[in-house]
Amino acid sequence: MSNDSILREVDEELRGDRMRNLWRRFGPWIIIAAVAIVLAVAVNEGWSWWQRSTTAQASDTFYSALELAEQGDVPGAISALDAIEATGASGYQTLARFREAALLARDGRRDEAVAAYDALSTSVTEPRVRELAFVLAASLLVDGGDVSAVRQRIGGLEAPDNPLRNVAREIVGLTQYASGEIDGSLETFEALLADPLVNQDLAGRVQIYVMQLLAEGAGNPEQRAAAEAAAAGAAEAGAAAEATDLPPQPSVTELAPLLPPAVDVPAAPVPETAEPVAQTGPAADTIVPEVPQAPANAGASPTNAN
């Protein structure tokens, strides 16, 4: 046996001993890592399947609740919505809570509906959803005239940079009117009309409110003049917006190039002279009776005739 063969065998033995030592040292950890990866994938797939199943079930229950509400079964619809909230399905759980509060309001249970909106506003993390819950809760308090309770919920929404500022101002102004604060209501509506980004439909409603307040004597002469000017300005802005939305009407000269070229239409053939149709039957023999003339004194009264 040559020296090269002996050295090769020794090198292979050393390499094998080194691999066996590495396996004894790290082999268990490799097995644990492989098992952990398999378990993680299985858990993830199981969690995804459970979420899909829960969401599908919540969707079916939600639409069933809507059908029950349309049929007038409000208690049954509320029970179905409560079942959705118990499942914890994200998305449908929030929708179910909004819908349940609306059903409570429609059923005349205003205090419960306000409490439901308040609970919703404190539990959600999305700012816009929370603000929407505040607005809906405050809208239910308008008729009560509790200005402080309304401002407690939506007072922060009247900030100039808030997209719901004008909706909040309308609710506050209506609540002030319901409480008898007609001057404060007029001031709130003036601030709404002064917003250059106010929606035209909302501005139209507020103009009616302002006219009603002015008719009831709200505000001092300066406020009344400012309110009338703001209402007139909002009306002109709405008319201008409607006018700009209409597309310009093309003239006849502009439409002329779009028309198809004229086509020579051949003259219609002259029909041959038809032979007269002879009258047959009783119609040909009909004699028109003569109408007797009225007497000369037809216009005289009976008394004169005698």
UniProtKB/TrEMBL annotation:
First and last residue of the signal peptide: none
Recorded superkingdom: Bacteria
Statement: the UniProt record of this protein carries the keyword Transmembrane helix: yes
Ancillary SecYEG translocon subunit/Cell division coordinator CpoB TPR domain sequence ranges: 21-150
Low complexity compositional bias, start-end: 254-278
InterPro entries the record matches: SecYEG/CpoB_TPR
Transmembrane intervals: 26-50
Keywords recorded for this protein, A-Z: Membrane, Transmembrane, Transmembrane helix
Region: Disordered, residue numbers: 240-306
Protein name per the record: Ancillary SecYEG translocon subunit/Cell division coordinator CpoB TPR domain-containing protein
Native organism: Devosia enhydra
